[in-house]
Design goal:
heterodimer, A: 310 residues, alpha/beta, Alpha-Beta Plaits, B: 121 residues
Protein backbone atom coordinates (compact mmCIF):
# COMPACT_ATOMS: atom_id res chain seq x y z
CA UNK A 1 0.00 0.00 0.00
CA UNK A 2 1.24 3.47 -0.79
CA UNK A 3 0.65 6.54 1.31
CA UNK A 4 -1.42 9.26 -0.35
CA UNK A 5 -1.35 11.81 2.45
CA UNK A 6 1.47 12.03 4.94
CA UNK A 7 1.40 14.60 7.73
CA UNK A 8 4.47 14.82 9.92
CA UNK A 9 4.64 16.96 13.08
CA UNK A 10 2.66 19.78 11.54
CA UNK A 11 2.28 22.93 13.61
CA UNK A 12 0.30 25.95 12.41
CA UNK A 13 0.18 29.18 14.36
CA UNK A 14 -1.97 32.19 13.60
CA UNK A 15 -0.37 35.00 15.61
CA UNK A 16 -0.57 33.83 19.20
CA UNK A 17 -3.06 31.09 18.50
CA UNK A 18 -1.75 27.59 17.90
CA UNK A 19 -4.28 25.82 15.64
CA UNK A 20 -2.20 22.70 15.03
CA UNK A 21 0.39 21.45 17.45
CA UNK A 22 2.68 18.72 16.15
CA UNK A 23 -0.06 16.89 14.27
CA UNK A 24 0.88 13.63 12.50
CA UNK A 25 -1.21 11.06 10.64
CA UNK A 26 -1.37 9.50 7.21
CA UNK A 27 -3.89 8.12 4.74
CA UNK A 28 -3.31 5.14 2.49
CA UNK A 29 -4.01 5.56 -1.20
CA UNK A 30 -7.57 4.44 -1.95
CA UNK A 31 -8.80 4.59 1.63
CA UNK A 32 -11.52 6.61 3.33
CA UNK A 33 -10.34 8.45 6.42
CA UNK A 34 -12.76 9.95 8.93
CA UNK A 35 -11.51 13.12 10.60
CA UNK A 36 -13.36 13.97 13.81
CA UNK A 37 -13.16 16.45 16.62
CA UNK A 38 -14.95 19.38 18.16
CA UNK A 39 -15.29 22.75 16.50
CA UNK A 40 -11.94 24.48 16.67
CA UNK A 41 -10.02 21.21 17.06
CA UNK A 42 -8.05 21.84 13.85
CA UNK A 43 -9.94 19.84 11.19
CA UNK A 44 -10.39 22.65 8.68
CA UNK A 45 -6.86 23.98 9.24
CA UNK A 46 -5.28 20.61 8.43
CA UNK A 47 -7.59 20.12 5.43
CA UNK A 48 -6.54 23.52 4.01
CA UNK A 49 -2.91 22.53 4.43
CA UNK A 50 -3.45 19.15 2.74
CA UNK A 51 -5.23 21.00 -0.08
CA UNK A 52 -2.23 23.30 -0.54
CA UNK A 53 -4.25 26.40 0.32
CA UNK A 54 -2.19 27.04 3.44
CA UNK A 55 1.25 25.99 4.69
CA UNK A 56 2.43 24.72 8.05
CA UNK A 57 4.45 26.97 10.37
CA UNK A 58 6.63 23.92 10.88
CA UNK A 59 6.49 20.23 9.98
CA UNK A 60 5.94 18.53 6.66
CA UNK A 61 2.94 17.57 4.52
CA UNK A 62 3.18 15.34 1.47
CA UNK A 63 0.28 14.58 -0.84
CA UNK A 64 0.95 11.93 -3.49
CA UNK A 65 4.62 12.14 -2.55
CA UNK A 66 5.02 15.92 -2.90
CA UNK A 67 4.42 19.11 -0.99
CA UNK A 68 1.11 20.46 -2.26
CA UNK A 69 1.60 24.23 -1.69
CA UNK A 70 1.86 26.01 -5.07
CA UNK A 71 2.55 22.68 -6.75
CA UNK A 72 0.31 22.52 -9.82
CA UNK A 73 0.99 18.82 -10.57
CA UNK A 74 -0.35 17.86 -7.13
CA UNK A 75 -3.10 20.48 -6.87
CA UNK A 76 -4.78 19.24 -10.07
CA UNK A 77 -5.25 15.88 -8.33
CA UNK A 78 -6.82 17.31 -5.18
CA UNK A 79 -10.44 18.23 -4.79
CA UNK A 80 -11.28 20.51 -1.87
CA UNK A 81 -14.36 22.63 -1.63
CA UNK A 82 -14.24 24.91 1.37
CA UNK A 83 -17.32 25.16 3.46
CA UNK A 84 -17.36 28.94 2.86
CA UNK A 85 -16.53 28.72 -0.86
CA UNK A 86 -17.40 32.00 -2.65
CA UNK A 87 -18.60 32.21 -6.24
CA UNK A 88 -18.62 35.24 -8.56
CA UNK A 89 -21.71 37.37 -7.92
CA UNK A 90 -23.59 36.67 -11.15
CA UNK A 91 -22.79 32.93 -11.26
CA UNK A 92 -25.54 30.38 -11.68
CA UNK A 93 -25.12 26.61 -11.42
CA UNK A 94 -24.37 26.13 -15.13
CA UNK A 95 -21.43 28.57 -14.94
CA UNK A 96 -19.87 26.50 -12.18
CA UNK A 97 -20.48 23.22 -13.99
CA UNK A 98 -18.93 24.63 -17.16
CA UNK A 99 -15.65 25.73 -15.58
CA UNK A 100 -15.35 22.81 -13.11
CA UNK A 101 -13.69 20.44 -15.65
CA UNK A 102 -10.88 23.00 -16.13
CA UNK A 103 -9.84 22.34 -12.55
CA UNK A 104 -10.61 18.61 -12.51
CA UNK A 105 -8.99 16.50 -15.26
CA UNK A 106 -11.13 13.46 -14.32
CA UNK A 107 -14.43 15.38 -14.20
CA UNK A 108 -17.50 13.21 -14.84
CA UNK A 109 -20.54 15.09 -16.14
CA UNK A 110 -22.94 12.15 -15.64
CA UNK A 111 -22.22 11.95 -11.92
CA UNK A 112 -22.60 15.71 -11.68
CA UNK A 113 -25.94 15.60 -13.50
CA UNK A 114 -27.27 12.80 -11.28
CA UNK A 115 -26.40 14.75 -8.13
CA UNK A 116 -27.78 18.05 -9.44
CA UNK A 117 -31.09 16.33 -10.14
CA UNK A 118 -31.15 14.36 -6.89
CA UNK A 119 -30.35 17.41 -4.78
CA UNK A 120 -32.84 19.54 -6.77
CA UNK A 121 -30.30 22.34 -7.11
CA UNK A 122 -32.00 25.38 -8.66
CA UNK A 123 -30.74 26.15 -12.16
CA UNK A 124 -32.02 29.68 -12.59
CA UNK A 125 -31.15 31.20 -9.22
CA UNK A 126 -27.86 32.99 -8.67
CA UNK A 127 -25.60 30.96 -6.41
CA UNK A 128 -25.08 33.88 -4.05
CA UNK A 129 -28.78 33.58 -3.18
CA UNK A 130 -28.55 29.84 -2.39
CA UNK A 131 -29.49 28.53 1.03
CA UNK A 132 -26.90 26.79 3.23
CA UNK A 133 -28.14 23.35 2.09
CA UNK A 134 -28.05 24.33 -1.58
CA UNK A 135 -24.47 25.59 -1.22
CA UNK A 136 -23.54 22.28 0.42
CA UNK A 137 -25.14 20.45 -2.51
CA UNK A 138 -23.04 22.39 -5.03
CA UNK A 139 -19.90 21.63 -3.02
CA UNK A 140 -20.75 17.91 -3.01
CA UNK A 141 -21.34 17.89 -6.78
CA UNK A 142 -17.92 19.50 -7.30
CA UNK A 143 -16.26 17.18 -4.78
CA UNK A 144 -17.56 13.85 -6.09
CA UNK A 145 -17.78 14.53 -9.85
CA UNK A 146 -14.15 15.72 -9.85
CA UNK A 147 -13.03 12.10 -9.22
CA UNK A 148 -9.80 13.55 -7.87
CA UNK A 149 -7.14 11.18 -6.50
CA UNK A 150 -7.38 13.02 -3.20
CA UNK A 151 -10.84 14.21 -2.25
CA UNK A 152 -11.29 16.35 0.85
CA UNK A 153 -14.83 16.74 2.18
CA UNK A 154 -15.02 19.13 5.12
CA UNK A 155 -18.43 19.00 6.82
CA UNK A 156 -20.16 18.37 3.50
CA UNK A 157 -23.64 18.01 5.00
CA UNK A 158 -24.30 21.44 6.50
CA UNK A 159 -27.95 22.28 6.00
CA UNK A 160 -28.73 19.13 4.00
CA UNK A 161 -31.95 17.24 4.67
CA UNK A 162 -31.88 13.52 5.40
CA UNK A 163 -32.88 12.51 1.85
CA UNK A 164 -30.02 14.55 0.40
CA UNK A 165 -27.57 13.09 2.92
CA UNK A 166 -28.60 9.55 1.96
CA UNK A 167 -28.17 10.43 -1.73
CA UNK A 168 -24.72 11.83 -0.99
CA UNK A 169 -23.71 8.54 0.69
CA UNK A 170 -25.20 6.41 -2.10
CA UNK A 171 -23.41 8.27 -4.87
CA UNK A 172 -20.17 8.62 -2.92
CA UNK A 173 -19.91 4.87 -2.28
CA UNK A 174 -20.98 3.82 -5.76
CA UNK A 175 -18.57 6.21 -7.46
CA UNK A 176 -15.76 5.39 -5.03
CA UNK A 177 -16.24 1.64 -5.61
CA UNK A 178 -15.98 2.14 -9.38
CA UNK A 179 -13.21 4.75 -9.19
CA UNK A 180 -11.28 4.34 -5.93
CA UNK A 181 -9.63 7.45 -4.55
CA UNK A 182 -8.33 8.70 -1.23
CA UNK A 183 -11.06 10.46 0.71
CA UNK A 184 -10.84 12.52 3.90
CA UNK A 185 -14.28 13.23 5.32
CA UNK A 186 -15.03 15.28 8.40
CA UNK A 187 -18.49 15.34 9.92
CA UNK A 188 -20.36 15.81 13.17
CA UNK A 189 -23.10 13.43 12.01
CA UNK A 190 -21.06 10.43 12.99
CA UNK A 191 -23.71 7.73 13.14
CA UNK A 192 -24.79 8.35 9.55
CA UNK A 193 -21.26 7.96 8.19
CA UNK A 194 -19.55 5.60 10.59
CA UNK A 195 -19.50 2.50 8.37
CA UNK A 196 -17.76 4.33 5.51
CA UNK A 197 -14.33 4.58 7.02
CA UNK A 198 -11.14 2.55 6.76
CA UNK A 199 -9.42 4.70 9.31
CA UNK A 200 -10.45 7.01 12.13
CA UNK A 201 -8.52 10.08 13.26
CA UNK A 202 -9.82 12.14 16.19
CA UNK A 203 -8.19 15.51 16.82
CA UNK A 204 -8.48 17.76 19.82
CA UNK A 205 -6.79 21.11 20.48
CA UNK A 206 -4.61 20.73 17.39
CA UNK A 207 -3.37 17.26 18.27
CA UNK A 208 -4.23 13.73 17.19
CA UNK A 209 -5.80 11.90 20.14
CA UNK A 210 -6.94 8.77 18.27
CA UNK A 211 -5.49 7.28 15.09
CA UNK A 212 -6.90 3.84 14.48
CA UNK A 213 -8.05 1.24 12.01
CA UNK A 214 -11.88 1.23 11.84
CA UNK A 215 -12.04 -2.39 13.01
CA UNK A 216 -10.11 -1.49 16.16
CA UNK A 217 -12.66 1.08 17.35
CA UNK A 218 -14.46 -1.38 19.69
CA UNK A 219 -11.15 -1.97 21.48
CA UNK A 220 -10.38 1.69 22.13
CA UNK A 221 -12.97 2.45 24.77
CA UNK A 222 -16.02 1.01 26.50
CA UNK A 223 -18.94 2.31 28.47
CA UNK A 224 -20.14 1.29 31.93
CA UNK A 225 -23.49 2.30 33.25
CA UNK A 226 -25.13 1.52 36.59
CA UNK A 227 -25.29 2.69 40.18
CA UNK A 228 -22.60 5.25 41.02
CA UNK A 229 -21.06 3.02 43.71
CA UNK A 230 -20.78 -0.06 41.50
CA UNK A 231 -19.43 1.90 38.52
CA UNK A 232 -16.95 3.68 40.79
CA UNK A 233 -15.60 0.35 42.04
CA UNK A 234 -15.19 -0.99 38.50
CA UNK A 235 -13.29 2.02 37.13
CA UNK A 236 -10.72 2.20 39.89
CA UNK A 237 -7.23 2.29 38.31
CA UNK A 238 -8.64 2.90 34.85
CA UNK A 239 -8.55 6.00 32.63
CA UNK A 240 -12.02 7.53 32.61
CA UNK A 241 -12.49 9.68 29.50
CA UNK A 242 -15.96 10.90 30.25
CA UNK A 243 -18.25 10.60 33.22
CA UNK A 244 -21.87 11.50 33.73
CA UNK A 245 -23.59 11.23 37.09
CA UNK A 246 -27.28 11.85 37.64
CA UNK A 247 -28.63 11.15 41.09
CA UNK A 248 -27.28 7.78 42.13
CA UNK A 249 -26.66 6.65 38.56
CA UNK A 250 -23.41 7.00 36.70
CA UNK A 251 -22.25 6.24 33.17
CA UNK A 252 -18.62 6.44 32.14
CA UNK A 253 -16.55 5.97 29.01
CA UNK A 254 -13.32 4.19 29.86
CA UNK A 255 -10.21 3.91 27.72
CA UNK A 256 -9.19 0.46 26.51
CA UNK A 257 -10.86 -2.82 25.62
CA UNK A 258 -13.18 -4.80 27.84
CA UNK A 259 -12.09 -8.19 29.07
CA UNK A 260 -13.93 -11.27 30.35
CA UNK A 261 -13.02 -10.68 34.00
CA UNK A 262 -14.28 -7.10 33.97
CA UNK A 263 -17.42 -8.05 32.05
CA UNK A 264 -18.21 -10.76 34.62
CA UNK A 265 -17.60 -8.32 37.49
CA UNK A 266 -19.86 -5.76 35.81
CA UNK A 267 -22.67 -8.27 35.31
CA UNK A 268 -22.37 -9.44 38.92
CA UNK A 269 -22.89 -5.87 40.16
CA UNK A 270 -25.71 -5.07 37.73
CA UNK A 271 -23.60 -2.69 35.61
CA UNK A 272 -24.10 -2.60 31.85
CA UNK A 273 -20.91 -2.86 29.86
CA UNK A 274 -20.47 -2.37 26.10
CA UNK A 275 -17.82 -1.29 23.61
CA UNK A 276 -18.05 2.45 22.87
CA UNK A 277 -19.57 3.41 19.54
CA UNK A 278 -17.60 5.74 17.28
CA UNK A 279 -19.90 8.57 18.34
CA UNK A 280 -19.28 7.88 22.04
CA UNK A 281 -15.56 7.69 21.34
CA UNK A 282 -15.50 11.07 19.62
CA UNK A 283 -17.63 12.65 22.36
CA UNK A 284 -15.42 11.16 25.07
CA UNK A 285 -12.16 12.30 23.53
CA UNK A 286 -13.56 15.76 22.85
CA UNK A 287 -14.55 16.19 26.47
CA UNK A 288 -11.68 14.48 28.17
CA UNK A 289 -9.48 16.52 30.46
CA UNK A 290 -7.55 13.33 31.25
CA UNK A 291 -5.84 13.76 27.88
CA UNK A 292 -5.33 17.51 28.02
CA UNK A 293 -1.71 18.38 27.44
CA UNK A 294 -0.26 20.08 30.53
CA UNK A 295 2.15 22.05 28.37
CA UNK A 296 3.41 21.73 24.82
CA UNK A 297 4.68 18.22 25.53
CA UNK A 298 2.85 14.98 26.35
CA UNK A 299 1.79 13.81 22.90
CA UNK A 300 2.18 10.31 24.39
CA UNK A 301 -1.33 10.82 25.75
CA UNK A 302 -2.48 10.19 22.19
CA UNK A 303 -3.97 6.81 21.50
CA UNK A 304 -2.59 5.35 18.34
CA UNK A 305 -3.22 1.93 16.92
CA UNK A 306 -1.58 0.99 13.71
CA UNK A 307 -3.70 -2.07 12.95
CA UNK A 308 -3.49 -3.15 9.33
CA UNK A 309 -1.74 0.05 8.35
CA UNK A 310 1.46 -0.65 6.47
CA UNK B 1 -28.78 -2.91 12.78
CA UNK B 2 -25.00 -2.80 13.30
CA UNK B 3 -23.34 -2.58 16.71
CA UNK B 4 -19.81 -2.29 18.06
CA UNK B 5 -19.88 -5.74 19.65
CA UNK B 6 -17.86 -7.25 16.81
CA UNK B 7 -16.09 -5.94 13.70
CA UNK B 8 -18.42 -4.67 10.97
CA UNK B 9 -17.23 -7.16 8.36
CA UNK B 10 -18.11 -9.97 10.77
CA UNK B 11 -21.60 -8.55 11.32
CA UNK B 12 -22.14 -8.25 7.57
CA UNK B 13 -21.00 -11.86 7.06
CA UNK B 14 -23.43 -12.97 9.81
CA UNK B 15 -26.23 -11.04 8.18
CA UNK B 16 -25.64 -12.59 4.73
CA UNK B 17 -25.32 -16.01 6.39
CA UNK B 18 -28.68 -15.41 8.17
CA UNK B 19 -30.29 -14.69 4.81
CA UNK B 20 -28.77 -17.78 3.21
CA UNK B 21 -29.86 -19.99 6.13
CA UNK B 22 -33.38 -18.56 5.85
CA UNK B 23 -33.43 -19.27 2.12
CA UNK B 24 -33.54 -15.61 0.99
CA UNK B 25 -30.63 -16.37 -1.33
CA UNK B 26 -31.13 -19.95 -2.63
CA UNK B 27 -28.17 -22.18 -3.41
CA UNK B 28 -26.52 -21.69 -6.80
CA UNK B 29 -27.98 -18.19 -7.18
CA UNK B 30 -26.08 -14.91 -7.03
CA UNK B 31 -26.00 -12.71 -3.94
CA UNK B 32 -25.98 -8.91 -4.45
CA UNK B 33 -22.64 -7.48 -5.61
CA UNK B 34 -20.16 -6.02 -3.15
CA UNK B 35 -20.97 -2.54 -4.44
CA UNK B 36 -24.71 -3.14 -3.96
CA UNK B 37 -24.14 -4.23 -0.37
CA UNK B 38 -21.82 -1.24 0.17
CA UNK B 39 -24.35 1.28 -1.15
CA UNK B 40 -27.29 -0.40 0.60
CA UNK B 41 -25.65 -0.45 4.01
CA UNK B 42 -23.58 2.75 3.45
CA UNK B 43 -20.57 0.62 4.18
CA UNK B 44 -16.99 0.86 2.99
CA UNK B 45 -16.54 -1.50 -0.02
CA UNK B 46 -13.35 -2.92 1.53
CA UNK B 47 -15.32 -3.86 4.66
CA UNK B 48 -17.94 -5.56 2.49
CA UNK B 49 -15.28 -7.55 0.59
CA UNK B 50 -13.77 -8.66 3.87
CA UNK B 51 -17.16 -9.91 5.08
CA UNK B 52 -17.98 -11.65 1.80
CA UNK B 53 -14.53 -13.29 1.69
CA UNK B 54 -15.15 -14.68 5.15
CA UNK B 55 -18.09 -16.63 3.70
CA UNK B 56 -15.97 -17.71 0.72
CA UNK B 57 -13.39 -19.12 3.15
CA UNK B 58 -16.18 -21.05 4.91
CA UNK B 59 -17.31 -22.51 1.59
CA UNK B 60 -20.71 -20.80 1.84
CA UNK B 61 -20.13 -18.49 -1.13
CA UNK B 62 -18.00 -19.00 -4.22
CA UNK B 63 -16.84 -16.67 -6.92
CA UNK B 64 -17.80 -17.07 -10.57
CA UNK B 65 -15.18 -15.10 -12.43
CA UNK B 66 -16.62 -12.04 -14.12
CA UNK B 67 -20.18 -12.77 -12.94
CA UNK B 68 -20.25 -12.44 -9.16
CA UNK B 69 -20.65 -14.29 -5.88
CA UNK B 70 -22.87 -17.36 -5.70
CA UNK B 71 -24.31 -19.40 -2.85
CA UNK B 72 -22.50 -22.74 -2.77
CA UNK B 73 -24.26 -26.08 -3.08
CA UNK B 74 -24.85 -27.40 0.44
CA UNK B 75 -24.33 -23.95 2.00
CA UNK B 76 -27.64 -23.99 3.83
CA UNK B 77 -27.01 -27.35 5.45
CA UNK B 78 -23.53 -26.23 6.43
CA UNK B 79 -24.92 -23.09 8.11
CA UNK B 80 -27.67 -25.06 9.84
CA UNK B 81 -25.11 -27.45 11.28
CA UNK B 82 -22.97 -24.66 12.72
CA UNK B 83 -26.06 -22.93 14.10
CA UNK B 84 -27.16 -26.11 15.88
CA UNK B 85 -23.95 -25.86 17.88
CA UNK B 86 -24.77 -22.26 18.83
CA UNK B 87 -28.42 -22.92 19.64
CA UNK B 88 -27.78 -23.95 23.22
CA UNK B 89 -25.57 -20.98 24.11
CA UNK B 90 -27.53 -18.42 22.14
CA UNK B 91 -31.12 -19.40 22.94
CA UNK B 92 -31.45 -22.12 25.60
CA UNK B 93 -29.10 -20.65 28.19
CA UNK B 94 -30.54 -17.09 28.14
CA UNK B 95 -34.04 -18.61 28.24
CA UNK B 96 -33.19 -20.64 31.36
CA UNK B 97 -31.44 -17.67 32.97
CA UNK B 98 -34.49 -15.40 32.49
CA UNK B 99 -36.84 -18.17 33.67
CA UNK B 100 -34.71 -18.48 36.79
CA UNK B 101 -34.91 -14.70 37.46
CA UNK B 102 -38.70 -14.82 37.12
CA UNK B 103 -38.99 -17.97 39.24
CA UNK B 104 -40.53 -20.04 36.44
CA UNK B 105 -39.83 -23.65 37.34
CA UNK B 106 -38.96 -26.41 34.89
CA UNK B 107 -42.47 -27.79 34.73
CA UNK B 108 -44.05 -24.38 33.99
CA UNK B 109 -41.40 -23.76 31.32
CA UNK B 110 -42.07 -27.12 29.64
CA UNK B 111 -45.80 -26.40 29.67
CA UNK B 112 -45.21 -22.97 28.13
CA UNK B 113 -43.14 -24.42 25.27
CA UNK B 114 -45.61 -27.26 24.74
CA UNK B 115 -48.61 -24.88 24.62
CA UNK B 116 -46.86 -22.52 22.19
CA UNK B 117 -45.95 -25.38 19.85
CA UNK B 118 -49.54 -26.62 19.91
CA UNK B 119 -50.67 -23.08 18.97
CA UNK B 120 -48.39 -22.95 15.95
CA UNK B 121 -49.13 -26.48 14.74
Amino acid sequence: MTTAIDIQSVTRRFGRTTALSGMSFSAEAGSILGLFGRNGAGKTTIMSIIAGQDRPTSGRVEVLGREPFENESVLSQISYVRDNQRYPDDYKLHHVLRIAPDFAPNWNADVAAELVEGFRIPQKTKIKKFSRGQLSSVAIVLGIAARASVTLLDEPYLGLDITARALFHDVLIRDYAAHPRTIVLSTHLIEEAERLFDRIVIVDRGRVVVDSDRDEVPNLAFTLSGTADAVGRLVRERTVLRSNTIGGLRSVTVRGATDEALAAEARASGVQIAPASLQELVAAFGESEALAPASDSAPEAALTQNGAHS
Amino acid sequence: MFTEDSPLFQQLADKIADDIAAGTYPEETAVPSATDFAVFFHMNPATVSKGVNLLVDLGVLYKKRGIGMFVAHGARQKLHRSRLNDFRAKYVEPLLAEAHVLGIDDEALHTMIFEKEKDQA
